[in-house]
């Protein structure tokens, strides 16, 4: 054999191997050839031309790995290079002949299969060293010596009696260098009666396989459906004889030797191209059993499909394969060709092709060929055959394809993911207690890290990747779907008041009403946040609820996955996401739980009719109906109930299971601050933490004229009015006596305790005089400020700067002296919500102090990323790109903002969304934004319930009477006179001073009414009704 390195490739009649090589890996290589090629650059394509003329001289020793074993004396060896397609050689062991396997229509020679199996098990997949001893041009074969480690393979085969030794041929050099040793070992094997030399009677006949028609070239008689029916889902042992493409193999099924073609279930690899047959005679293939490979004139039976492994390439012309088709085929060949595999038949297609899963050994474990191909980007998932597989196997394939698409490997290199309306949420894990179960797939959790009473304390969490029956909406006449009440009650009894770990995973933009996807061009949509919730303690969870599948990604937090609990009970279904939609990190566990619920026919998967429960809602009826129901609620002294909703600090919606009704219930003799009054939200938050959706006991005393039942309420034997009074969030009303109020002495003690500590509404309490913070004017002289108005909002609110405040000029001077450089490098400056920064105002490009109100999730990715900022010294708010932000310079004061939020006292101005709200804002702007006017603000009340400033419209509010000094007129009165505002309603507990102020303004409103100006153009609008309406408050933390 002669070996030449050619930079160009030419077409000639010699066999060539086109070998992409590197200096460190040169396919078949020897020490001599490696040194000789040392001058070449990496990745030179060379052509290894093998001269087919017979040569007496031997080549150098080469190394490679055994890829296939066609027979008992033949090996297909591929180079050990790391090239994409290593070169291959077919080597027949020198000077030996093994028995021949059956060909088309024929039978095995005795011991042919045992011989092939010995060599296959000995060498397949192993590294060997070999050299070509000689070639025989007439049959186009190379004969050589092969070493497995330090053992000569030819000697091993002969010593075991699986081949006989050829005599030396006529031409010199056509023999193995180890011929003498081969002959000695042959004689030894004969004497020992091993292998084909067995002396056992009948051994020769017994070694001949009884082959079915499919194994000898006649697949037409194969009963594919019968084979499937007999072996469906049962692992079958097999040996892969040929790989047609990456996802199609031809296999001997043992022990019956059915020769079948199996399409790998669930996937499809790129095609190897269409083959166009070439006119050629195959019935008279030249074979030789003569010594030294001399040709025989006897015709040979045609090869079977299993034995045409190498010859097939020469007998047809290939049309170009699909991209990565050759890679997929090579990937499959080096893993399963001539290997022992397990085949699990999954189904048969309409053409009677067998569909199955292929598992090959890898050390002590078995690997799934389909999964390996998909994970390496060499096959795609296909539904038609995947539907024949088990759900777990389908999920693994689908998940693998999704990941490889994201990584854009191989066939997915140019993949462009479809648009998605979901977005991943990073690093938002928290712990807290469950406050409310909204529905089977939505709960509200009080975050332990956020202070009690904060609007951000309660967070709505939608359970990732599941969907439960909807609760409906009574206001729209929507009734609860079947099992909706059951799943809500199931979660209520297990979660309310319990500690949970929450892992936020993704957010999704949905339609405004039913959670559907927003349609193109619509802006009326909302953002829903989804996460996985884990119940830390399982004391209230049934034993059969704790079965949990392993998480699909990462490590599962401690506890029971609530979504899995719901789905496993048959109260919900798992959402089938689109490929690139975000999903639960524990999606596989959810699917497994759903499969268990379906097989167990639980809940919504049951064939039984769903339970029906009719609830009479007395809150929707008349007060007369509530009074008629009073005797039923007073029959038992104490009634069990469930707090369905907290309407205010002292008023609740209760479900009475025994009477199957819902009622409005209020503490008898205890009252909290009204809506929009200080501490109203804190009272509601306290009651939500204490009794929301808890099991309670009530005792009803009477019913008022609005249909609200009055009485006492206990949770765990505690009268829940007591903690409300102790916290200073409610008053005890004793004007009508305390005879009918249960536990009156406890309530009085609780109120006295709050007074002594001056808590909340008793902050300014003086013995003998009750003053709630912000509810009445101070007896001392009212404070008057000289102001400049900087921004006008809706509803009569506006921002001001105090003229005498020296900080205004100081900060303006600090900002003017700044020399700001280019925008910071992305990643070096990552503003977060609540940070104080410098922002460039878009109107005049001036730099001002600002607070980040909203920021993109995650790190900044582009200078065009948008941030919503609130200018703390002026009160205006806008959205600007990252390029207009800078860190707050140390030379600039980081003190509180100079803009103070104010509101016109004693009057109600319509919001911008209400009728005449826009006109009211424009008129107010015209009156107060003119810098030439001197304005004075008299502070009537101060409301601090808004807490810290978090953006426009938040923080402490000053209720003021605004006076134009030059015109000596009140802006408050002018708004009333123009019909752009109305007076606040008088209350019984108003101070004389407040009543006097309202009386003075009444004449201005009366004039607007008479002249039917603006909001009075259709007469009295009766807008005061809203003041007495029962407030329906959404839970804090909801979107």
UniProtKB/TrEMBL annotation:
Presence of keyword Endoplasmic reticulum: yes
SMART domains assigned to the protein according to its UniProt record, in alphabetical order: SNc, TUDOR
Occurrences of domain TNase-like (ranges): 60-199, 234-414, 428-607, 637-764
GO cellular component: cytoplasmic stress granule; cytosol; endoplasmic reticulum; nuclear envelope; P-body; perinuclear region of cytoplasm; RNAi effector complex
SUPFAM superfamilies in the cross-refs: Staphylococcal nuclease, Tudor/PWWP/MBT
One Pfam family hit: SNase
Organism per entry: Protea cynaroides
Cellular localization per UniProt: Cytoplasm, Perinuclear region; Cytoplasmic granule; Endoplasmic reticulum
Protein name as annotated: Ribonuclease
PROSITE patterns xrefs: TNASE_3, TUDOR
Gene Ontology annotations of biological process type: cellular response to heat; mRNA catabolic process; mRNA processing; positive regulation of gibberellin biosynthetic process; regulatory ncRNA-mediated gene silencing; response to salt stress
Region (Disordered): 1019-1039
Its biological purpose: Cytoprotective ribonuclease (RNase) required for resistance to abiotic stresses, acting as a positive regulator of mRNA decapping during stress.
Domain Tudor: from-to ranges: 830-895
Lineage, opening ranks: Eukaryota, Viridiplantae, Streptophyta, Embryophyta, Tracheophyta
Keywords for the protein's UniProt record, in alphabetical order: Acetylation, Cytoplasm, Endoplasmic reticulum, Hydrolase, Nuclease, Phosphoprotein, Repeat
GO molecular function: hydrolase activity; mRNA binding; nuclease activity
InterPro entries from the UniProt entry: Silence_cplx_Nase-comp_TudorSN, SNase_OB-fold_sf, Staphylococal_nuclease_OB-fold, Tudor, Tudor_AtTudor1-like
């Amino acid at each position: 054999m002669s070996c030449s390195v050619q930079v160009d490739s030419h077409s000639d009649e010699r066999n060539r191997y086109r070998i992409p090589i590197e200096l460190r890996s040169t396919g078949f290589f020897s020490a001599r050839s490696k040194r000789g090629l040392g001058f070449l650059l990496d990745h030179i394509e060379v052509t290894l031309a093998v001269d087919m003329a017979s040569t007496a001289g031997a080549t150098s020793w080469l190394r490679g790995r055994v890829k296939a074993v066609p027979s008992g004396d033949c090996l297909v060896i591929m180079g050990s290079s790391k090239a994409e397609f290593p070169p291959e050689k077919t080597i027949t062991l020198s000077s030996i002949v093994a028995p021949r396997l059956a060909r088309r229509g024929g039978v095995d020679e005795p011991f042919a299969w045992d011989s092939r199996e010995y060599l296959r098990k000995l060498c397949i997949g192993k590294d060997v060293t070999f050299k070509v001893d000689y070639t025989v041009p007439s049959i186009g074969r190379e004969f050589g010596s092969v070493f497995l480690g330090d053992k000569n393979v030819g000697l091993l085969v002969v010593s075991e009696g699986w081949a006989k030794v050829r005599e030396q041929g006529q031409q010199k050099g056509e023999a193995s260098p180890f011929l003498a040793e081969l002959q000695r070992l042959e004689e030894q094997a004969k004497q020992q009666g091993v292998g084909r030399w067995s002396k056992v009677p009948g051994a020769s006949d017994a070694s001949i396989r009884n082959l079915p028609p499919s194994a000898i070239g006649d697949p037409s008689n194969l009963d594919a459906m019968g084979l499937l029916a007999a072996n469906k889902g049962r692992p079958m042992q097999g040996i892969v004889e040929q790989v047609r493409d990456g996802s199609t193999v031809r296999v001997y099924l043992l022990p019956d030797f059915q020769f079948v073609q199996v399409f790998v279930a669930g996937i499809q690899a790129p095609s190897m191209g269409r083959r166009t047959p070439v006119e050629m005679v195959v019935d008279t293939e030249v074979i030789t059993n003569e010594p030294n490979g001399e040709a025989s004139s006897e015709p040979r039976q045609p090869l079977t499909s299993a034995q045409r492994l190498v010859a097939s390439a020469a007998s047809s012309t290939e049309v170009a394969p699909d991209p990565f088709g050759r890679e997929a085929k090579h990937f499959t060949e080096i893993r399963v060709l001539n290997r022992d595999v397990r085949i699990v038949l999954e189904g048969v297609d309409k053409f009677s092709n067998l569909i199955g899963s292929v598992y090959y050994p890898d050390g002590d474990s078995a690997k799934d060929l389909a999964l390996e191909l998909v994970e390496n980007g060499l096959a795609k998932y296909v539904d038609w055959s995947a539907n024949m597989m088990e759900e777990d196997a389908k999920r693994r394939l689908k998940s693998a394809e999704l990941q490889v698409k994201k990584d854009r490997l191989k066939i997915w290199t140019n993949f462009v993911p479809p648009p998605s309306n979901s977005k991943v949420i990073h690093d938002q894990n928290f712990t807290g207690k469950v406050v409310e179960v909204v529905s089977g797939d939505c709960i509200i959790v009080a975050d332990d890290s956020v202070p009690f009473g904060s609007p951000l304390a309660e967070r709505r969490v939608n359970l990732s990747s599941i969907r439960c029956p909807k609760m409906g909406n009574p206001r729209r006449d929507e009734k609860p779907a079947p099992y909706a009440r059951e799943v809500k009650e199931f979660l209520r009894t297990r979660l309310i008041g319990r500690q949970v770990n929450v892992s936020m995973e993704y957010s999704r933009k949905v339609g405004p009403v039913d959670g559907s996807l927003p349609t193109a061009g619509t802006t009326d949509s909302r953002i829903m946040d989804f996460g996985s919730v884990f119940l830390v303690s399982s004391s209230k969870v049934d034993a059969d609820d704790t079965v949990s599948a392993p998480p699909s990604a990462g490590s599962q937090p401690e506890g029971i996955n609530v979504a899995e609990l719901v789905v496993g009970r048959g109260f919900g279904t798992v959402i089938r996401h689109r490929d690139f939609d975000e999903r639960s990190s524990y999606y596989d566990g959810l699917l497994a739980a759903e499969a268990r619920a379906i097989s167990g026919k639980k809940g919504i998967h049951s064939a039984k009719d769903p339970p029906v429960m009719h609830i009479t809602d007395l809150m929707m009826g008349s007060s007369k109906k509530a009074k008629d129901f009073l005797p039923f609620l007073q029959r038992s002294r104490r009634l069990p109930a469930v707090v369905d909703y907290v309407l205010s600090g002292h008023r609740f919606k209760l479900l009475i299971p025994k009477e199957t009704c819902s009622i409005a219930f209020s503490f008898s003799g205890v009252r909290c601050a009204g809506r929009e009054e200080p501490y109203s939200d804190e009272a509601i938050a306290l009651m939500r933490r204490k009794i929301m959706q808890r099991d309670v006991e009530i005792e009803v005393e009477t019913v008022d004229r609005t249909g609200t039942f009055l009485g006492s309420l206990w949770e765990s034997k505690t009268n829940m009015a007591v903690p409300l009074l102790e916290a200073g969030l409610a008053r005890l009303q004793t004007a009508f006596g305390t005879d009918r109020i249960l536990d009156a002495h406890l309530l009085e003690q609780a109120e006295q305790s709050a007074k002594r500590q001056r808590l909340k509404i008793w902050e300014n309490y003086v013995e003998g005089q009750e003053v709630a913070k912000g509810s009445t004017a101070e007896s001392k002289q009212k404070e008057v400020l000289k102001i400049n108005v900087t921004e006008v909002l809706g509803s009569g609110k506006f921002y001001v700067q105090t003229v005498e405040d020296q900080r205004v000029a100081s900060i303006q001077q600090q900002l003017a002296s700044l020399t700001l450089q280019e925008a910071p490098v992305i990643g070096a400056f990552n503003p977060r919500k609540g940070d104080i920064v410098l922002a460039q105002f878009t109107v005049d490009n001036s730099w001002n102090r600002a607070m980040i109100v909203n920021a993109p999730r995650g790190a900044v990715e582009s200078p065009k990323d948008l941030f919503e900022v609130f200018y703390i010294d002026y009160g205006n708010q806008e959205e600007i790109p990252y390029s207009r932000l800078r860190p707050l310079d140390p030379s600039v004061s980081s003190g509180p903002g100079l803009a103070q939020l104010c509101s016109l006292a004693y009057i109600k101005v319509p919001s911008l969304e209400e009728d005449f709200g826009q006109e009211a804002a424009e008129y107010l702007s015209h009156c107060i934004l003119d810098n030439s006017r001197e304005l004075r603000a008299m502070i009537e009340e101060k409301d601090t319930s808004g807490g810290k400033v978090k953006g426009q419209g938040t923080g402490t509010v000053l209720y003021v009477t605004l006076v134009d000094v030059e015109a000596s007129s009140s802006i408050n009165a002018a708004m009333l006179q123009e019909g752009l505002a109305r007076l606040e309603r008088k209350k019984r507990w108003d101070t004389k001073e407040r009543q006097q102020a309202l009386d003075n303004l009444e004449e201005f409103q009366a004039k607007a009414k008479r002249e039917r100006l603006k909001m009075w153009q259709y007469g009295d609008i009766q807008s005061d009704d809203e003041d007495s309406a029962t407030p329906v408050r959404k839970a804090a933390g909801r979107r």
